[in-house]
Amino acid sequence: MNTDLEVAGTAAEPTTIRVGVVDDEPMARSFVAKILASAGDVLVVGEGAHGGEALELVRTLDIDVLLLDLRMPRMDGIDTLRELRRHPSMPAVVVLTTFHADQAVATALQLGAKGFLLKHVEPAELVRAVRVAARGGAVLDPSLTSDLMGHLATHHLDRIGAAAEVARLSARLRDVLRLVGMGRSNNEIAAELRLSDSTVRGYVSEILAATGCSNRVTAAVLAQRAGLLD
Questions:
Q1: 96 three-state secondary structure
Q2: Which one of 175, 179, 197, 216 counts the least CB within 10 Å of its CB?
């Protein structure tokens, strides 16, 4: 599986990416932590079994990326994201799911999650996804993107419909949207297209307004669905 997630480093990239892992299955947490421990630039600083523990990790530890299961006892991932939105320094949240993208995943993205991955993602893809999320990029498992489209309230589009919507954008906006779909951060897009950061921010805002996407992650889903990454 190739998720097209790996991107070039930037000067702003942290030396060590601090990660929290929250899942009610001990074996799943152990699997994820073991994989991330093999990466020299990633450090798992805390683990939790439910949303309450996720909130405590964020309150007490300096976390860059939170890997969050959606279906947990006591407090699930959706309620956790609602609470995290109130936190002054919400980390980048990547949702972990099992077999398919459903309405819960779509809701998580609308609540600010940076993307989603299969729980049993290949090790190299998991590490790359954490790095992308830490840089502010969108993390998408392409095997789930098609399923997710049907659950996004603003985009009940098939591939042809998505392509038609994207075709209404200018060539420059399509270039920016393609890079958003590849998981690039604003800084990386600016460097690649030789634009200022403020110009890229303006273009991304224009794309969201023109397409009705709620955030850059749903815009990345639209880019993939429209075939911009083919």
A1: strand
A2: 197
CB contact set of 186 (below 8 Å; sequence gap of 6+): 136, 197, 200, 201, 204
Q: What is the CATH T-level fold of the domain 17-149, as seen in this structure?
A: Rossmann fold (3.40.50)
pLDDT tens digit sequence for 12-41: 445 899 999 999 999 989 989 999 999 989
Same topology, domains 17-149 and 159-225? Answer is no
pLDDT value at 151 more than 60: no
pTM exceeds cut of 0.85: no
Strand partners for 115 = 94, 139
Domain 159-225, CATH among 2.40.260.10, 1.10.10.10, 2.130.10.10, 3.40.50.880: 1.10.10.10
What is the distance between the alpha carbons of residues 40 and 184, in angstroms, rounded to a whole number? Answer: 22
CA 38 and chain centroid, separation: 21
For residues 159 and 230, which has the higher predicted lDDT (pLDDT)?
Answer: 230
